[in-house]
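Task: fold both queries, return tokens.
Query 1:
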Amino acid sequence: MRITLFTSNNIRHNYLINLLAKNCNELNVIQEVTTLFHGKNRGAYDKNKKILEYFKKVNLAQKHFFGNKLIFFNKKLNFLPIMMGDINNIDISEIKKFFLSSDLYIVFGSSFIKGDLFQFLKKKRCLNIHMGVSPYYRGTDCNFWSLFDNNSHLTGATIHLLSEKLDSGSILYHAMSNYTNKGPFFYSMSFVASAFNSIIYNLKNKNLFTFKPIKQNLEKEIRYTVKKDFTSKVVEKFQKKKIILNKEKNNQLLIRPYYYN
């Protein structure tokens, strides 16, 4: 099997690259590069002490689940590194031979894909790994906001078809977790691990190609967030909150939930 992955360059993204490479014959990666030091360097978020402190905790949880592997080598890999935000400037005719002739297409952590590339991926039934439980939380930093809203039962991941509107594609399933013993940062990161494990599990069992996608009911949306909503003031409020992590399964709100323990 050949897989094409659109992703970014943090530890969790590289972990997914390595994981997919172990489970396919060839992996083509279009990797958008951004800073690894949010809060310290300007990237998707402002340079700010509170944001830096927040992402230090995020990175501790990330390293717990995914190690600290930033560089990897594998003969199965074809790489196209680009700057974050440049993906829609690519001429797809120039990358079609090596990156757009696969059996499965996955998006995780890339910038929003539009135009000709989106139209191509739509026809290929490209999957998007959305870190948030759609349709309740869509946009960016969704699992932060679900915890901020005291909706820990709506923290998770959604595997859905890539869509023209952000995180609104028909859903294959939700990836969930019961990992509640190390606080909200580890809890939130466990859903990333669940999403990755669910992809490999369903790939091996060939379920990814048999799930009937279920259309989202966007009337159930609680929050739609963008990067500018994630401010130092909001982070400070989050740090002061007493967040109760949900240990009960809420399957009535979910679609074919996959649980990671």
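Query 1 returned. Query 2:
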Amino acid sequence: MNKHFGFLLLLCICGLPACWNAEEKAAIAKLKPTKDPIQEEIYAFRLKMRALYNNRRFAELEPVAAEIRRTKPLFGNGSWKIAQFYESFACRREEPESMWQLHDRIHQDWIAQFPTSITARVAYADFLREYAWHARGTGFADKVTKEGWQLFGERLDLARNTLVESRRLTDKDPFWWVVALGVALGQQWPKNEYDQLLEQAKAFEPKFWGYDTARASSLLPRWYGEPGDWEAYAKQAAARPDGLGAEIYARIVMSLHGYYDNVFR
């Protein structure tokens, strides 16, 4: 990874530093936008996976996921290919209920055709987790309807059951813990149980940085943390001798900046 990765990611959040003079800013303004070849590669991969999923070509998705789990590839920007694989199937929250129901049927068809597939079950559990939040909405708790809370709980229970069932399968998948950590947060597991799940995840795949961004999110005051906790965790993660250094710090900030008007204040 480029040693300036952290600075570049933070620059995306902040915009141009105030210390840059008018001449420098004018020169930057003249730059022409161009396509990021790495991002284009990711888009192409995701579009291909989504097309296979939409057309229920599960027999073609299965070996792709198996090979990714075996080789653990990263894209040039450091994103894990296995994460991009599962995110290819996402249903946007603004989609109508009919589209969410269609996705539900596709996932159930996948499991029916490949009942021993870890891929199919992780994908379905991830969908159910998002489907739960679709029912709840993103507003404050006192604005959620009774039906919204009921569906939220039911769908998270289904997601958890799907994950539990998949533990009996031979194959294991690093994205399983990403989904499990999301379910645990939604179900408000006791902090010690969440911490145990995180330790299992990091023991399984220590370099998977999605676990660190999930841990940082869980340390927001709305969940398990107090003011300053996630920032302290970001510093701790960046200081690991065998870790990603400034890159993981930047990734954590990027993942949480949407909770603040200005994450640096």
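Both queries returned. Flag for query 2: The chain has a mean pLDDT of 90.
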